[in-house]
UniProtKB/TrEMBL annotation:
This is Thrombospondin type 1 domain containing 7A. Keywords: Disulfide bond, Glycoprotein, Signal. It comes from Gallus gallus (Chicken). The lineage of its organism: Eukaryota, Metazoa, Chordata, Craniata, Vertebrata. Residues 267-309 are annotated as: Disordered. Transmembrane segments: none annotated. It holds the Pfam family TSP1_spondin. SUPFAM superfamilies: TSP-1 type 1 repeat.
């Protein structure tokens, strides 16, 4: 069918002339039309079959949330269109309608005041995780670490309760903080250990034994580095073989004895030797100059002071011995010579006499920290302390606890309740709408006519709560009110202010209030202004006297009125005049008013035909109110009205229509008001009946608004300011007017003039005097409100403790809070709400340090103990030496030892092993100080020592490998370099910045394209390629550069061309129209429909034509 249809179209291109002479042309055209319709039906059926597979619904992004109210009641929309699978857009009817996605959804409309309710909750960065490398090969050596990435949780929450909310709410005010950032995983650091110490002596003196050596950890493993190796090694050692006779003896080493003090006789001899030396020194000093003697005197005093400071640790160096014996297999002791060994163990050594820590008795308990009664936390704390009398020396046990704390309760009848604190709030500010305006409407913020939903704020502050304050204030207020009844009203306002000043509590530190925070903002409503609306003017009333109670001459007025249908927000003063008057002659105060007509009564008692209707009247006054009929006795009574009672065969006419509006509002020389009414023929007359009137009789015209165009009315000006009127005594300070308390009653005046319409002001006699509006009225004088502020808070505390480092003089401040703003001429607020002054200079914090003095002479084991050992004749060998330790401030001043025990760190060693060199030992000077560095990275500094005495001539002492005379050390390096880490971030637009790139049209409300910035992390390294803080490289940790986010552009086609001519000159043909491509889509814009590849155009569906 489709082929046939197509052939019919192609073969039918021959033109046939139209005319009555060719009878075959219509039949052939009809055949072609049938084939065309059948072809179109087949194509439509096949297209419907393929719709589900080739056409799909496409959706655009959701637009901005719109709505009248803030909160969850908003609506957001998106574009939904039908597209071919190849990307081009088509008609929506080609897609399945049941599968059409929604184009709108409910949303949360964000307003500016939501910023106080929602905020981003930013979590902490998690651990740095490695990023998978693009290449599988790992670098052979780690130089600066491994690139990594770390993430954190970002959630939009409600500030009040922490409940999560949609991210779009927080994104309205602040872009979502980044959730990922580049980081650097430092290089793996393997465990570093020191070299092994020398092997210990063999455990056996003969035969096979064991010996071990140890090493310690220099740097532990980090960042996944390899673990530490074994720190101890053992090996088998072989001594000389044990002979048969040697195996009979074994060497036994006993334990060390308790450390003993040398005998007193030996001490006395040592003191005598010391005194003799002092005498010799005194003899030498006697020959010195006075300046030298003064220096020696100061040194003696200093040494004496040091001895006093050492009362906490009286160091005594003693000695201890042990037994070394040679034992036969049978258990008998033999001479040491039988136990052959290269080196016998030592049998004596110097030691420190052990002394345990001694403390004083406990002090008395301090008073309880809780001096008042409180049910929530009834218990306080109290402490007691003790001091150290003797520090431990040579003991493993530490001093006991020096301070003890326990809970306590303050008891007794006189215990006062604790001070409680609570929140207070100031008055609500005036309702304001501009804080809630969106960013786009901020330009309206300066307008004063804003109305609708607004917001009020107030300030909160913390005060000391006092339950007895309220009853005291009530008593005081009653007393003042009783005293003020006889006084004038003017004294009422200060009384109100005094009462408030008493109730205003002094603000305290906000941290003292622990209760729930009162709200500081609330929604409010400002009524929008409404214009005054009035009804239409009534008809002009009758001519009446200006004052019917006192008629004067023949002057009168006709009045017309209108009423207020909608009260304005500003009161009736904003409405136009409601009464107009025109002068008239022959006035009357009362007149008859026709309110109806009785039935039509035919004349001569006939059943139908001409007749009369009696009017139904009432007597009314000039205001249109019904009054006694006797008052209208002088008025002309209305006469009966001519009417027509229809007969059965008469012409039937409709009722008269209502009178049309008057053509003029008034009548003058050139204008006359006319109005018209009409009726129509409902049924024509029968035989013998009254015939229908001609067409002119179906309309009636009458004069209207015959009054003069000279119209007058009273015009009122705005009411002036309310001024107190001392003559008014009907109201006092306790009166109320319209439900509002008033302090006094004043008077208001306004200007009232007589105005002629379209002319201007005229004399007052032209307007009715009895209708003149009032020019003076009483008014409400609101109470004067003075500004009320709280008393000044207490001065903030100055630093009570000492200040470390450079002393910066801090300031202390105090403040007060305005709790009521002035109004109605009340006392203004003070200018000073905040005061500050400088604190007195705080004492400088002393940093304490241990001062170590020179080591005393090396003290050996007493001679009488070592006299039997080899080489005892020479005073040399190992010993112990002690030194004095004192506590000093940083400036060098003397301090108590307890300060250093708290703040100066661990106690330096009081003793150390020493060696008095023997004749065969190498002797050196002390190491010099290190030389200074020149500041360059890679520099070296050195220190030296030299041989002294006979050691200069000994060859073993000249061996620099065993006894180095120079030591080198690298200078510290301060050079750092910054290097980028990781990839660049995405291009990020600046906050709140919307730009249009290349003048393209912005689609939607939010533009997410234009110029932005991208960032890359920076790492800082030292000269050894070690990672350090980025601040050392004077870097923020990242670098930035400008970037462009291209804006999407949709496919752009031309407008439709005109329809082409019909393809057939007779019969059924087609005509086409087309569009052509103007601009291709790019950067993700909506694609073009399917185009002709050659002409780059699109052809509309074929349109049949005849």
């Amino acid at each position: 069918m489709r082929a046939a249809g197509g052939m019919g179209l192609s073969e039918g291109s021959t033109a046939f002339p139209r005319g009555p002479g060719l009878s075959t042309s219509p039949a052939r055209c009809v055949g072609v039309l049938v084939v065309l319709l059948l072809g179109n039906w087949g194509a439509r059926a096949q297209s419907e079959f393929q719709t589900s597979s080739v056409y799909l619904w496409k959706t655009g992004p959701w637009g901005r949330c719109m709505g009248d109210e803030c909160g969850p009641g908003g609506i957001q929309t998106r574009a939904v269109w039908c597209a071919h699978v190849e990307g081009w857009t088509t008609l929506p009817t080609n897609c399945k309608q049941p599968e059409r996605p929604d184009n709108q959804q409910s949303c949360f409309r964000v307003c500016d005041w939501h910023k106080e309710l929602y905020d981003w909750q930013i979590g902490t960065w998690d651990h740095c995780r490695p990023v998978l490398s693009r290449s599988h090969e790992k670098p052979q050596e780690c130089l600066r670490g491994e690139d990594g990435i770390q993430t954190r949780d970002i959630t939009c929450i409600q500030k009040s309760n922490g409940v999560p909310a949609e991210d779009v709410i927080c994104e309205y005010f602040e872009p979502k903080p980044r959730q990922e950032q580049a980081c650097l995983i430092p290089c793996r650091q393997d465990c570093i250990v020191a070299e092994f110490a020398p092997w210990t002596e063999c455990s056996k003196t003969c035969g096979s034994g064991l010996q071990h050596r140890t090493r310690h950890v220099v740097a532990p493993p980090q960042f996944g580095g390899s673990a530490c190796p074994n720190l101890t090694e053992f090996q088998v050692c072989q001594s000389s073989p044990c002979a048969a006779e040697e195996s009979l003896y074994s060497l036994n080493v006993g334990p060390w004895s308790v450390c003993s003090v040398p005998h007193s006789r030996q001490i006395r001899q040592a003191r005598k030797r010391g005194k003799s030396k002092d005498k010799e020194k005194d003899r030498e000093k006697a020959v010195r100059d006075p300046e030298a003697r003064e220096l020696i005197k100061k040194k003696r005093n200093r040494n004496r002071q040091n001895r006093q400071d050492n009362k906490y640790w009286d160091i005594q160096i003693g000695y201890q011995t042990r037994q070394v014996t040679c034992t036969h297999r049978n258990g008998k002791t033999a001479a040491l010579s039988f136990c052959k060994q290269d080196k016998l163990p030592i049998t004596f050594q110097s030691c420190v006499i052990t002394k345990e820590c001694q403390v004083s008795e406990w002090s008395e308990w301090t008073p309880c920290s809780k001096t008042c009664f409180d049910m929530t936390t009834p218990k306080g704390n109290r402490t007691r302390s003790r001091t150290i009398k003797q520090l431990p020396i040579g003991s493993e046990s530490e001093c006991p606890q020096l301070e003890e704390t326990e809970q306590c309760i303050t008891q007794g009848d006189g215990v006062a309740p604790c001070i409680t604190y609570g929140w207070r709030t100031t008055e609500w500010t005036e309702c304001r709408v501009d804080p809630l305006l969106s960013q786009q409407d901020k330009r309206r913020g300066n307008q004063t006519a804003l109305c609708g939903g607004g917001i009020q704020t107030r300030e909160m502050y913390c005060v000391q709560a006092n339950e007895n304050l309220l009853s005291y204030l009530n008593t005081l207020k009653e007393k003042e009110e009783s005293q003020s009844q006889s006084k004038s009203k003017a004294s009422a306002a200060p009384l109100l202010s005094i009462t408030f000043e008493i109730t205003a509590s002094r603000p305290v530190d906000r941290r003292l209030c622990t209760g729930p925070l009162p709200s500081t903002s609330q929604l409010c409503h400002i009524p929008c202004p409404t214009e005054c609306e009035t009804s239409a003017w009534s008809a002009w009333g009758p001519c009446t006297y200006e004052n019917c109670d006192d008629p004067q001459a023949k002057k009168g007025f006709k009045l017309r009125k209108r009423r207020i249908t909608n009260e304005p927000t500003g009161g009736t003063g904003n409405c136009p005049h409601l009464l107009e008057a025109i002068p008239c002659e022959e006035p009357s105060c009362y007149d008859w008013r026709i309110v109806g007509l009785e039935e039509c009564v035919p004349d001569n008692e006939k059943p139908c035909g001409p007749g009369t209707q009696v009017p139904i009247v009432i007597c009314v006054n000039s205001d249109g109110e019904e009054v006694d009929r006797q008052l209208c006795r002088d008025a002309i009574y209305p006469i009966p009205v001519v009417c027509e009672a229809p007969c059965p065969k008469d012409c039937v006419l409709s009722m008269w229509s209502a009178w049309s509006s008057c053509s003029h509002t008034c009548s003058g020389k050139t204008t006359e008001g006319k109005q018209m009414r009409a009726r129509s023929i409902l049924a024509y007359a029968g035989e013998g009946g009254v015939q229908c009137p001609n067409s002119s009789a179906l309309q009636e015209t009458r004069s209207c608004n015959e009054h003069s165009c000279t119209v007058y009315h009273w015009q009122t000006g705005p009411w002036g300011q309310c001024i107190e009127d001392a003559s008014v005594s009907a109201f006092n300070s306790s009166a109320s007017w319209n439900g509002e308390a008033t302090c006094s009653v004043g008077m208001q005046t306004r200007k009232v003039i007589c105005v002629r319409v379209n002319v201007g002001q005229v004399g007052p006699k032209k307007c009715p005097e009895n209708l003149r509006p009032e020019t003076v009225r009483p008014c409400l004088l609101p109470c004067r409100k003075d500004c009320i502020v709280t008393p000044f808070s207490d001065w903030t505390l100055c630093p009570s403790s000492c200040q470390e480092g450079d002393v910066i003089v801090k300031k202390q401040s105090r403040h007060r809070v305005i709790i009521q703003l002035p109004a109605n001429g009340g006392r203004e607020c003070p200018d000073t709400l905040f005061e500050e002054k400088e604190c007195e200079a705080s004492p400088i914090c002393y940093n304490y340090r241990w001062k170590t003095h020179k080591w005393r002479r090396c003290q050996l084991v007493p001679w009488y103990v070592r006299q039997d050992s080899p080489g005892a004749h020479e005073t040399c060998g190992p010993g112990l030496q002690a030194r004095a330790i004192t506590c000093r401030r940083q400036d060098g001043g003397q301090a108590d030892i307890s300060e250093c025990l708290k703040y100066a760190g661990p106690l330096p060693s009081l003793t150390q092993t020493c060696q008095i060199p023997c004749q065969d030992d190498c002797q050196f000077t002390n190491w010099s100080k290190f030389s200074s560095c020149n500041g360059d990275c890679g520099g070296v500094r050195t220190r030296k020592r030299t041989l002294i005495g006979k050691s200069k001539k000994k060859d073993k002492c000249k061996n620099s490998q065993l006894y180095p005379l120079i030591e080198n050390q690298f200078c510290p390096c301060d050079k750092y370099s910054a290097q980028p880490v990781g990839n660049w971030s995405d291009c990020i637009l600046p906050e709140g910045k919307v730009e249009v790139l290349l003048g393209m049209k912005v689609q939607g409300d939010i533009k997410e394209c234009g110029q932005g910035y991208r960032y890359q992390a920076m790492a800082c390294y030292d000269q050894n390629s070690r990672l350090v803080e980025t601040s050392r490289c004077n870097s923020h940790g990242y670098i930035e550069e400008a970037c462009i986010i291209p804006c999407p552009s949709d496919c752009k086609l031309s407008e439709w061309s005109n329809w082409s001519r019909c393809s057939k000159s007779c019969g059924s043909g087609v005509k086409v129209r087309s569009k052509w491509l103007r601009e291709k889509p790019y950067n993700g814009g909506r694609p073009c429909p399917k185009l002709d590849h050659v002409n780059q155009d699109i052809i509309d569906s074929l349109f049949p034509c005849l």
